[in-house]
Amino acid sequence: MSRLETSRGYRAWLPAGRRTDERVIEAWRPLLSRLSARFDLRPEGPGATALRELTGGLAALAGIEPALTIKAGAPAIALGSPEAAQAALAQMDAQALAPEGFRLRFGTANSRKASPAEAESSGGADAAAEPYAVLLGGSDVGLLHAVFAFLRLFQLSEAGPPAELDRTEAPRSALRMIDQWDNMDGSVERGYSGGSIFYRNGRVLSDSPRIADYARLLASVGLNAICVNNVNVHREETKLIAADRLPDVARLAQIFGGFGIRLFLSVNYAAPIELGGLHTADPLDEDVKAWWRRTAEEIYAAIPDFGGFVVKADSENRPGPFSYGRDHADGANLLADALAPFGGLVLWRCFVYDCHQDWRDRSTDRARAAYDHFRPLDGRFRANVVLQIKNGPMDFQTREPVSPLFGAMPRTNQMMEFQIAQEYTGQQRDVCFLVPQWKQALDFDTRLAGPGSTVSRIAAGEVHRFAYSGVVAVSNIGDDDNWTGHHLAQANLYGFGRLAWNPEASAEEIAAEWSALTFGTGSAAATFVRRLLLQSWPVYESYTAPLAVGWMVQPHYHYAVDVDGYEYSKWGTYHFADRNGVGVDRTLATGTGYTGQYAPENRDRYESLADCPDELLLFFHHVPYTHRLQSGKTVIQHIYDSRFEGAAAVEAWIEEWRGLENEVDAERFAHISDRLQGQAENARQWRDVVNTYFYRKSGIADEQGRLIYD
C-alpha cells in the first residue's frame, strides 16, 4: 500500500483500520459472515461500487471477508441469515423509495433448527435466532448510500448490531453539489490544502487514484454533483469543452459516475470568441446560439450523463451578457437552450455587483446587488436554469444575514451556495466548524410564502415546487496528505454533505458523528474534538470582526487582521468606524434601504434598533460606541470583552489538547498542536489590533483595565 493509503488523515472518516474493540467485532461477526447482493453488474457502475465499498469496509474494520453471492437484479444486499434476509426482502418494495433513497432493516429470526448442543443450552428451544440485515436501494445509487449508512452504524457501534431497526432515508434536496476552484496549472483559487488533484501543468490528471478516493469521500456523505474547475475560467480551463479535451473530461465523469455523482464544468461566457473564432458572444446572436448548440452536442456525445454548466458572468471583471446590452436571463437562456435537449442544467451564479465603487459614495451598497440585479427577472429564466445564491448578501463572511434573494423569485429555480473553504474564517489554519453557521442559514424563516418558508424547505423545492433546487458549496480539498490542510477542517466537508442530505440534522449530531468516526467511538480525543468544533465558530467570531461588520482582513489575502483593509477600496465593503460610532446604516428610514428587500416581518426586525439581533447589529445599523446591546453591554465593551475571551479560549484548547497526547496518533497530535499554536498567535494579533483600533477611535477605556495598546 502507498503512504497515502495508510495515512489516517488521507482515509478521513472512512474505515481506516481494524476496530480496537474485538468484543464488538465478535458481536457483529454472525451478521457479517454471509452476504448476497444484486445490482446492475456493470463493473464501473454504482452497484459494483456499493459492493466494493461494503466488502472493503468490512475487511478494514473487522478483518472479515464474507461468503459472497452476486447476481443481477433490483438493487439490494442481504447480510446474515439468508432465509430471514430473503423473507424480509420479499416484504420490501424498492419502487416505493426515491431513486437515491434507501431502506435499512435489521432483525433476528429463528431461521433454522437448533443443534442438539444449542437446544440443550437454551433449555430445549426448537430453533436458534440468527441476525440479518437488508439494504435496499431505490436505485444502484441508493444502494451505495445504504452501504455507507451501514458502515457508519458499524463504525459507531459500541455493542452488537441492532436487534430491530427499520430506517428509510432519502435526500431532502435534489442537487447536493461541490464546486472546485481548481485551475489547470495545478493551483486552487482560495485553496488552503495544497495543489489541485485534478490538474497539473495544463493537463487533466484523469488517471490519478486520488480522484476516485475523493469521489468516495463525497459519495459517503451523500453528495451527487461536482463542478471540477474554477468559476473564474481562465484561458486553459476554457478549453475543457473543446473536442480534444473531452476524452479526459469523460474519464473524470466516468470515475464520479461510478459513485453516483454527475460532473459539471464552469464555462467562460466568452468561449464563442476564444474557442469559436466568432467576433461576439452576444446571447441573441444566431451564430453564437449555433456555436453553443454544436458544443453541447459534442459534449454529450462524449459524456452522456454530463450535468451541465456553472457560470460566473458579469462579476468581478468576468465576461457576460452586460457587454452586449443584455441581461442575465438572456445570458442564461442562451446556454439553457443548448443544453435542454440533453437534460443539462445551467447553474448561474448571482454573485454580481459593481466592483468599482467610490468609498465616498454611501448610496451604493454591495449588499443590495444580487437582489437588485435578479429579482426583476423572475419568471424569465428557462426551466433548466438554476440561480446559485450565496448564503449571505456579501461574500462568505464570518457573520452575515441570509441573502434576501433566496426565495424571493418563486418562478425561478434556486440553490443555496455555501463555502467550505474557510476564505474569511481561518483558511483551514484556524479551527472554524461552519455547520452551525450553515444550520442558522438553512433554518432561517424567510416568511416569503408565509410562516415556515425556511431556507431548507426552499432549497428542497418544498415551498415553490422548483423543478431543480438544492445546495452547493465551494470545496476545501487539495493534494495535501490529509486533503484539507488542517485535520479538523475535514469536519466541514463531512458536515456539509450530511447537512445537504438532511438539513434537520443538528450541528451537535454531526460534530459527534465525525469526531467518533475520525478519532474513535467513546475516546477522550473524540469527546474533546466534538466540544472544540462546536465552540470554534463563536470563538473565531469573538476575536475577529465584531457584530457582523466583516471585512477587517488584509486585502486579497483575507487571513490576517487589517481593520481598514477594505475601508477605502473599490470593492464596497465598509464599516464606517469614526470617533462617534461604527456600523453600516442599511435601514429604509435613514440608510441604503437594504432592509426593505426582506419580507415585512424580517424587514421590521432588522429595521428596528431595539429588535435587531445583537450578532447582526453593525451590519444593519451605525451606532454609538456607548449603545447598549440586548446583552446589556455597550458596543465598545462587547468589542473589548469578546476579543480577550476569544484569544483565551484558544489558549485553553491548547492546554486541553496537550493532555491528550497519548490518546491520538503522533502525526495528528503534532499537526493539530502546531495548528492550534498558530491560531493562538492569530487570535492575539486580532485581539490587540482590533482593541487598539477601537480604543483610538472611541477614546473609551476598557472597564476591566486590561492591557490595550494605545
Distance between the termini: 58 Å
- What name does CATH use for the topology of the largest domain? TIM Barrel
Output mean pLDDT.
Answer: 95
Low-confidence stretches: none
So how many helices? 23
Q: Which secondary-structure class do the elements indicate?
A: alpha/beta
Q: What's the story with the biggest beta sheet?
A: 8 strands, parallel, barrel
User: Strand percentage, roughly?
Assistant: 5-15%
| Structural domains: how many | 3
Fold and architecture overview:
The protein has an eight-stranded parallel barrel with strand order 7-10-11-12-13-14-15-16. Strands 2-1-3-5-4-6 form a six-stranded mixed beta sheet, sandwiched between helices. The chain has a two-stranded antiparallel sheet with strand order 8-9. Strand 8 (199-200) and strand 9 (203-204) form a beta hairpin. The model has no long low-confidence stretch (mean pLDDT 95). The chain contains 23 helices and 18 strands. With 710 residues, it is an alpha/beta fold. The protein is globular. Helix 4 (46-62) packs parallel to helix 7 and helix 22 (635-658) packs antiparallel against helix 23. 37% of the residues lie in helices and 13% in strands. The chain has three domains: 3-169, Chitobiase/beta-hexosaminidase domain 2-like (Chitobiase, domain 2, 2-Layer Sandwich), CATH 3.30.379.10; 175-505, Alpha-Beta Barrel (TIM Barrel); 543-584 and 622-698, Alpha-d-glucuronidase, C-terminal Domain (Alpha-Beta Complex).
